[in-house]
Task: structure prediction
Amino acid sequence: MFASTLADGSSEDQRPENLLQLNTSAIPGDPLSATNLTNLFPTTDNNSTNSTNQDLLSGLDENVFDEINLMSLALEEGFDPLEVSQLFEEPDSDSGLSLNSSHSPTSASISDTSSITFGEEEGAAGYSSDSESTSYDGLEGAVGGSGPEINKFCQMDDSSYYSEMSLHNVHHNHTYNQLPNQMEPSPEHHYSWSVKSSKIRSPCVNAMDKNLSRDERRAKSLRIPFSVDEIVSMPVEMFNSMLTKHYLTETQVSVIRDIRRRGKNKVAAQNCRKRKLDVILNLEDDVNQLKVQKEKLLKEQAQCSKSVSHMKQKLNDLYRDVFNRLRDEQGRPVNPNQYALHCNSDGSIMVVPRRLFKSEQKKDTQKDKKQK
DNA sequence: GCTAATTGTCATTGC
DNA sequence: TTGCAATGACAATTA
Result:
């Protein structure tokens, strides 16, 4: 890690500002003094010094390495002295949103290729969502977010590097996902777009960063040495120990907690919506099943009604047939309006006068009522 | 340009 | 009390 970091940093060896800033942010009393740090950065012919430096570093404690990791990250990803100075000089800033670089004494030195300063990073101080996205979108091209791509892929010289940094800082325009080269240069941006525009390779920078989420850009811009995925998905214990073990500024800790909270909530919201959708789908299934069941029951009911009416019809026919055959003692046909067939419990059938039949029926119903 | 769907975020609540 | 998941509400973005 260290060797590769130092090797990557070799392209940065012509940036006196960077070295100066790193020197100023070295931990007081740390074995890695400003001088040592300066020596850490390889020059073009420092293959031999690399190994020496690694030997030197082998005895350092973890915190020092963490500190250096942040710095090496900065080197690796296009070091911005302004931001690193803020990381170490503004421990009280809230959630990394005090990124207004105009407060940094280094901003003037950085922007000496033009009169533009990082102070034009508008909206960076607040903590509303709007100002947040504004500031980080601005940072996207200005700091770590685009650094490695510039270094590794764009191969620009230092002057264009700084111009690019300045341009991106000036040029956040609140048109999300729009590449700077797709924008029409406005009058107030005339200067920035006229400066060395032929050397600017914004698509190279933005193409790499535009796929990053806001939190990823935040983490990158604050040099947080963990991925958003790691921050969100690591267990609580590991997360807490990570916060305590690593040398992190309050800003970084605050942003890390924000990232974790939002990441967790994002997942929770996704799960919640998935569950809600499942519930809706299940309810729709239930509705469909109940509809099918209802249809089935209605068919069954129709079938039953049909068979009942059929049986009634047969019973009437039978009744009529029986009475047609019945004869009284004088051999006369029995009037079905005056007599009725009564079925006893033992299965025997009697011909009963209807008036008696009705009075018995009344008695029976009265008995039933009393019993109830 | 309008609209519906999707997604991220915040605030709140309950465990 | 604190942390966290669940969820409603809202806004921004996307299709």
Remarks:
- The CA atoms of residues 97 and 126 of chain A lie 6 Å apart.
- Residues 129, 213-214, 262, 265-266, 269-270, 273 of chain A lie near DNA strand B (CB under 10 Å from a C1').
- Residues 1-208 of chain A have pLDDT under 50 and may be disordered.
